[in-house]
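Here's what a typical entry looks like (Prolyl-tRNA synthetase associated domain-containing protein):
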Amino acid sequence: MSEQKQRVYDALNKLGIKYEVVEHEPVHTMEDMDRLGLPEKGTLCKNLFLRDAKGKRHFLITCDENAKVDLKSLGRQLGAGNLSFASEERLEKYLGLKQGSVSPFGLMNDTDHAVEFFIDKRKSNDCFCLKNLSKCKSLGIHPLENTATVFLSFKDLDKFLWNLDVDVMKIRL
C-alpha cells in the first residue's frame, strides 16, 4: 500500500471514522469510475480543482458525479470572476496531488489553507439524478490516489475536514 493512501487511512482511524475502501485499477475520469460498478457502495463524487483568472484564489469543488458545473456561473457565485482548471503544478503545490486523484483528502496537504472548499448542496428535487451530498448515506472519494475509493458518510468527511481546520462551505451548483 502506498504511503499516501496510508496517511489517509491513519488519519481516519485516529478520528474513529468508519469507512470502506475499494481498491481498483487506476482511473482518470468519471467514465473510468463508472466502469468499475461502484455506485451501489454510495454516491461517487466528482472533484474539481479550480483557480481564478489571476491565480490568487484556488477552489476545490466536490459534487455528484453527474453534476454539470458551469464555470462562468460558479465564478460569479464565488465572486471570483472567470474560473479555469488549475494546472498540474498548482495541484501538486497546493494539494500534493496528481491529476486524476483530486480529492477533499488532499486538503490535509494544504497546511496554509490556501484552497477554499465547497461541496454541492443541491436540493434533492432540483434534479432526480443529482444528490445533495450532505444528505447522502455514503460518499466515494479517492484517498490521494486514483487506485482506490474510500466510502464514508458526509458527517465523517466533515469531521475529518473540521479536524484539519478546513471550512466546508455548501454551494448550489
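The first strand starts at residue 20 and ends at 23.

More examples are in the samples folder.
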